[in-house]
């Protein structure tokens, strides 16, 4: 996708602090962190959000979750715990329409879901 900022980050056309990368997934620090650890995990291919997943592309969910586990160990938050958040669609607060998971941790998080 030509004008998608996360595609540009994945192609390294925009700067980011990359914390993990493999052939299908890239993860980088959120520009506006809400916790000591706030990483965005994205597929390298453009998928708008969960509603664009199908039988052909959904294997990426496995790769994203294995990346999350890897990053949690690397950043030392695997034992204390962390949260993986996906916002799907405008009402959920999705502002960048390229599938991404927020990996948030490094402090005691609130109990609420909303
Ligand atoms: P959403 O609200 O769509 O779930 O999350 C989008 C996230 O992307 C936000 O937390 C926002 O801070 C982050 N973000 C937006 N633009 C950029 C950018 O150019 N670079 C980085 N690293 N993060 C961004
Ligand atoms: Zn994109």
UniProtKB/TrEMBL annotation:
Question: Motif Histidine triad motif: which ranges?
Answer: 98-102
Question: Which Pfam families does UniProt cross-reference here?
Answer: HIT
State whether keyword Hydrolase applies: yes
GO molecular function annotation: hydrolase activity
Keywords noted in UniProt: Hydrolase
Gene3D superfamilies recorded for this chain?
HIT-like
Q: Can the keyword Cell wall biogenesis/degradation be found in this entry's annotation? A: no
- Where is the signal peptide, in residue numbers? none
Q: Which domain of life is it from?
A: Bacteria
The active site lies at 100 (tele-amp-histidine intermediate)
Q: What is the protein named?
A: HIT family hydrolase, diadenosine tetraphosphate hydrolase
Which residue intervals define the domain HIT in the entry?
A: 5-114
Question: Which PANTHER family does the entry mention?
Answer: HISTIDINE TRIAD HIT PROTEIN
């Amino acid at each position: 996708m030509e004008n998608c900022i996360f595609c540009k980050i994945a192609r390294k056309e925009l700067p980011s602090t990359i914390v993990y990368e493999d052939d299908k997934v890239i993860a980088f620090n959120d520009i506006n962190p809400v916790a000591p650890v706030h990483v965005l995990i994205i597929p390298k291919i453009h998928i708008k959000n969960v509603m664009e997943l199908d039988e052909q592309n959904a294997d990426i969910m496995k790769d994203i979750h294995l990346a999350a586990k890897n990053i949690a160990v690397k950043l030392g938050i695997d034992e204390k715990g962390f949260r993986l958040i996906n916002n799907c669609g405008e009402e959920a607060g999705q502002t960048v329409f390229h599938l991404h998971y927020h990996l948030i941790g490094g402090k005691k998080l609130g109990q609420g879901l909303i």
